[in-house]
Design brief:
The structure is a homodimer. With about 260 residues, chain A is α+β, with helices and mostly antiparallel strands. Helices cover about 25% and strands about 40% of the residues of chain A. The first copy, chain A, has helices at about 10-20, 130-140, 185-200, 215-225, 235-245, 250-255, and strands at about 5, 25-40, 40-55, 60-65, 70-75, 80-85, 90-95, 100-115, 125, 150-155, 160-165, 170-175, 180, 205-210, 215, 230. Mean pLDDT of chain A is about 95; it is low at about 255-258. The interface between A and B is large, with 69 and 66 residues. Strand 3 of chain A pairs antiparallel with strand 9 (about 125) of chain B, so a sheet runs across the interface. Chain B binds a DNA duplex (15 and 15 nucleotides) through strand 5 and helix 3.
Amino acid sequence: MIEYTKCGSNDQCVEVIKNAIRNKELLIIFGKCTVDYQGRAASKLTEGERFVIIKQDGAIIIHRPTGYSPVNWQPNTSVIEVVERDNKIVITAIRNKPREIVWVYFSEIYGVIHGKLVDLGEFVMYMDENEIRDILYENPELIEKGLRFLEKEKSIGNGYADLFGVDKNNTPVIIEIKRISASREAVLQLFNYVKIYENMTGVKPRGILIAPNFTSSAIESIHKLGLEYKEINLQLLWKYKKAKEAKHGTLLEFFQKK
Amino acid sequence: MIEYTKCGSNDQCVEVIKNAIRNKELLIIFGKCTVDYQGRAASKLTEGERFVIIKQDGAIIIHRPTGYSPVNWQPNTSVIEVVERDNKIVITAIRNKPREIVWVYFSEIYGVIHGKLVDLGEFVMYMDENEIRDILYENPELIEKGLRFLEKEKSIGNGYADLFGVDKNNTPVIIEIKRISASREAVLQLFNYVKIYENMTGVKPRGILIAPNFTSSAIESIHKLGLEYKEINLQLLWKYKKAKEAKHGTLLEFFQKK
DNA sequence: TATTATATCTCGGGT
DNA sequence: ACCCGAGGTATAATA
């Protein structure tokens, strides 16, 4: 399953590492190294103790002893090469599109973990933007009385508006949803759709930004650009979803039961 | 430096893990587990073989055997708790701001790596947006003859324009830089600054988007919104920087030498 | 393949 | 503490 090799000689190390890569095993190398990167940008990392993860699909992640983010990485490798040179073990990881190369120079390897992991587990994420969008689509009254949705992910210009519908006066409504906090960036996104829609159809639609909260400059921009916003409560949305899943009886009955 | 423990009993495992966390060591646990997460969103992961990294500052990263991205994580933990319950080893990682919890339930632990890594290395990144901005600031002729820059990261409204200056006619120029490809999003960003500047000063500035290349819809939007764009060559910028670093003689001399 | 928008984005810098 | 914007962002979805 998982084997640990405490590296004695470099030769032995290289052998273990090469075998693990050839067999597409998970491989983690602990040691002292420097790292170079060149591709979309370029970086240098001077010597220190780190660990390099090479996954079963060739993804490479280099971690320092602290912090969430890897210091260097290579998501899609086309070639992983391991050689000994100048008394260092050099790992070269090449990616083709875009063309990028990561070099790890180990002056010392403390140990190597390798083995095949089997993971057929299912990952499910709740309350991401898609789910919020779907709940709102099913329950337009959460936004405004008389609102009817006509389309999810409506293609407008080259982009996609989260929701599209008409209000009680049959005025088109374009809706942009943010799951956490809506900043000015979200306002600009919405404004873009509104403008393009107006240009293409000659009809000026309403643009409503929906989020659990808004930055002050977002609200400022909303006013300046003639848009609207509405705060939503994620927990309420969640209740609506659960009520719908329960499927027995109406929403009213559901909440009375609780 | 690094020690590997092949776990026999659960009790022994828990002891090793607790010690490593208490001593703020790097800790990697290999085994079969399920993972739950609740916080900004929520997720469930059914059983499979994974490894959990707990770093020396408490950052937690849970990786499946393939792919660059972790399946679950916790960047800033305030509490990490390890207990045995129902014959499972449960790791609970709590973050306070925002309030989020990750639970890992190990039904089996294959082995544990732990130890203190020392990493004082320096990481330097080249040709990120800051560097490009600085080179352009020093060399406005790369964009246009007669252009003079007055400010970097100029605060406009609630945001920041990359560069601000005046052209040969003393017309204000706002510049937005993208390091790789400029999409419509970048155009909107620039448009936002231009609009706000115009609103605040009554003077209509030029807005120039600068990037090594542009998506077709970006260029379309640029024309529609009355903005401008200019393609730059990163390698040329790099040469300018190197020339400046060389410091002996003029740019002309530098290029003649090559 | 290129483009678009999301992300439990993370992270750093500024106010 | 909030807000803003970059990132070698990666990743998924869509034309």
